[in-house]
Design brief:
It is built from 19 helices and twelve strands. The chain is α/β, with parallel strands linked by helices. The strands form three sheets. It has a six-stranded mixed β-sheet with strand order 6-9-10-3-11-12. The longest helix is centred in the first third of the chain and has 49 residues.
């Protein structure tokens, strides 16, 4: 974990190394000030030597100014180093997430990834800044102050050793008991974020079913779980401060009592006692800092482990040693394919799929809910890898291709259509960043989107709100189809992507496909028979297995499932008519 995180310091190594130097110089200045104070009392005030008081006082002022300067520089460089470190951690996670397969993302959950890139990174950033400053300041201050205290009076300084033992024992207890609690807290954070994310994404459904109170109750429960875990941790953490204060006051009382006796018998001067008071505060403040550092490190350790887990996660899908960068055609072969979402599981959602599609064919896919239609087509661009068998595209196993090359030649319009904030043109150019305005308009005409786009005041420069909330479901589907067509793919997959358009528009889209992109292999997943009956062949799936594969007419005569669906839809159409 440490190696993973340390590798992200990168260009901020220099400021990370400079910060401790400034901190140590600041400590040296602070340690020298009590000596000057003792000299003023013993050699200046006691002997009525005003010149010594003035000179030593000026030296103290200079030391204080230098301490301030080094402190400011240390704070500035520490802030820059920790902020840069946090930036690199976020970028490292985000870049790695972009390479994740669907199964990798499922492993962490969306809410969990958001928590790691926000709350966890902030915790590690604060800990790193504390390490650069307090982890160097506290030990050096403790060591230097102890040396100076023992050089003044070794007998009195043994008081500090007892204080260190007491505080060290309390610190060990606090750290050992709070770390497991903090480790659990961040899992509760994931649940809290998941509740918020789900509610916002489905806010229309929540309001439509008047379930606001239910969602508030869910959030309160998740929020209370986080609160309860923090309370349990804080109950232990609060021991730290009262014990620290008790030790500080005990040391001051003992030092005053024993020091006064030594002054009476002449074994200690007033200036030396004042210096010891300064050093006892330095020593105890150092111990307090060390305690704070350990608590912060305990809190951030759980966050650091979670961040390193994301950075070190390897995608399930990778290129081979010599990936192929050229796809000859859009032919697709499923060779006895079986698939399970969980590795080494016999619970297959697809079972022994064996079918072969020629380049340029239009293939319809029909099946009930849960028949794994979407999963089947997701194997073509390697969104998942098969568990058994193989998928061939252009007469080669898809695992032999460079993943980017493969996916650039396979365009998918998924069930859940996604548009991004930006203009219509910007959204469409996801298909081809260099597409001209003429190409954009051409694919929009094929997708039957040009007509409604031109009705907008800004036409193709119309701004799409986040998630495409200012366009209808049917308009969103047609824009997504146009975006896919801009890729000029060898294989086009429409996963129930015309469900929100009327049958006439659906028919026009299919007609445009036949006439304008005859060489592109087309997979059309649909619930309506009318959307696939003109396909060259239709694949009927049931519970992850192929029931039949043939033309519309063939299936009507020999496939009971297909015929039942067809007849039920025809009866429904007649009733509506």
């Amino acid at each position: 974990m440490l190696k993973t995180l340390a590798s992200q310091i990168k260009e901020f190594k220099k400021v990370s190394l400079v910060t401790p130097v400034f901190v140590i110089l600041e400590v040296v200045m602070d340690i020298c000030i009590p000596l000057m104070m003792a000299s003023i009392i013993d050699d200046g005030v006691s002997k009525n030597n005003i010149r010594h008081v003035v000179i030593t006082g000026l030296i103290m002022i200079a030391l204080a100014l230098f301490s301030l300067l080094f402190g400011v520089l240390a704070g500035k460089t520490a802030a820059r180093a920790s902020s840069g470190f946090a930036r690199n951690l976020r970028m490292a996670m985000y870049k790695n997430i972009q390479d994740f397969s669907f199964s990798n993302i499922d492993k962490f959950s969306t809410a969990g990834l958001v928590t790691r890139m926000t709350t966890d990174v902030t915790n590690v950033q604060n800990a790193y800044q504390m390490i650069l400053r307090l982890c160097f300041r506290a030990p050096f201050m403790l060591i230097f102050a102890m040396i100076m205290a023992f050089s003044i009076n070794a007998r009195l300084s043994t008081i500090f050793l007892g204080a260190i033992v007491v505080l060290g024992s309390v610190l060990v207890y606090v750290v050992s008991h709070t770390f497991p609690l903090f480790n659990q807290v961040f899992k509760k954070y994931d649940a809290l974020n998941a509740s918020v994310q789900e509610n916002i994404n489905a806010i229309r459904v929540v309001k439509a079913y008047v379930r606001e109170d239910h969602e508030i109750s869910k959030f309160q429960k998740a929020s209370f779980n986080v609160y309860a875990m923090f309370i349990d941790a804080e109950k232990i953490l609060v021991l730290n401060m009262p014990v620290m204060q008790f030790v500080v006051y005990a040391c001051i009382i003992l030092l005053s009592w024993l020091g006064a006796q030594m002054i009476v018998v002449g074994n200690l001067t007033t200036g030396e006692l004042m210096s010891l008071f300064s050093y006892v505060m330095n020593i105890l403040m150092s111990l307090m800092m060390i305690s704070m550092v350990f608590v912060m490190l305990t809190l951030s350790k759980a966050s650091a482990d979670r961040i390193a887990e994301v950075i070190n996660e390897k995608s399930d899908l990778n290129n081979g040693e010599n990936p192929v960068h050229d796809i000859t055609d859009g032919s697709v072969d499923f060779n006895h394919v079986s698939f399970s979402y969980k590795k080494e599981s016999d619970n297959y959602v697809l079972r022994d799929i064996d079918c072969h599609i020629k380049s340029g064919e239009t293939i319809g896919i029909i099946g009930g809910t849960g028949s794994a239609k979407s999963t089947l087509v997701s194997l073509i661009p390697r969104l998942y890898d098969v568990s058994k068998g193989s998928v061939f595209v252009g007469n080669r196993d898809v695992r032999e291709y460079d993943i980017e090359t493969l996916r650039n030649n396979v365009a998918m319009v998924l069930q859940k259509n996604v548009l991004f904030s930006g203009t219509i043109k910007e959204n469409l150019r996801w298909g081809d960043i260099d597409a001209s305005d003429e190409e954009i308009e051409r694919v929009c005409r094929l997708a039957q989107a040009d007509e409604f786009i031109r009705k907008f005041p800004d036409k193709y420069d119309t701004y799409i709100e986040q998630g495409g909330s200012n366009v209808s479901g049917g308009q969103k589907q047609r824009l997504c189809i146009a975006r896919a067509l801009l890729k000029k793919p060898k294989i086009l997959i429409l996963d129930d992507s015309t469900s929100a358009v009327d049958t006439r528009t659906d028919s026009l889209i299919r007609k445009a496909f036949r006439e304008e992109i005859p060489d592109t292999t087309k997979f059309i997943i649909a619930q309506r028979i009318s959307s696939v009956q003109d396909a060259d062949r239709i694949l009927v799936l049931d519970e992850g297995a192929v029931v039949d594969f043939g033309t519309h007419d063939q299936l009507l005569t020999r496939c009971d499932i297909y015929r039942d669906v067809y007849e039920s839809q025809m009866k429904g159409a007649e009733k509506n008519a």
